[in-house]
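Quick start: read one record
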Amino acid sequence: MSDDGDADRTRRFREAALPHLDDVFTLARYLMRDRADAEDAVQECFLRALRHFDSYRGPAMKPWLLAILRNVCKAEFARRAVQPAPPERTEEELAADDPSPWQEPQLSPEAELLRRHDDEAIRRLVASLPQPFRETIVLRDINDLSYRDIAEMLRVPVGTVMSRLARARAMLRARWTLEQGSAP
């Protein structure tokens, strides 16, 4: 391929893929549970997507990118399974790692403090879910993918996606209620 062809291909890829960068990174953060690892996974995802962009024929770019990211994360977990694991990070470290730029500012310092507490609690509760439930709720409720897209990406029936999502939401609701009931 000529340099002009490469430049055009790269431009088309950028236009198609980069609007989904935040969604890909969000899923990576929940799957990898570490900001640096998530950044590495996203970089590898986009490199693989660019490498295979000419063969992409799918209807939607976002599910394709998220499927690639999921495979990158699985490969990293498999690689780590044969190596000693680094010390586990606390939920507070995970929540403090990523300020949430998509959230609207609050009017008062008190309201901002309450919002931050709730945001941290939700992130921590989602991060504490078992992998299949965490992954499903992030794909649906954060990345706004359809049940069908999630089912195709995870290679499970749509009913399984719906079941996992219902169970994940029930677990979150129960944990939230328990946590809020024990709060001072």
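The chain has two domains: 3-80, 91-182.
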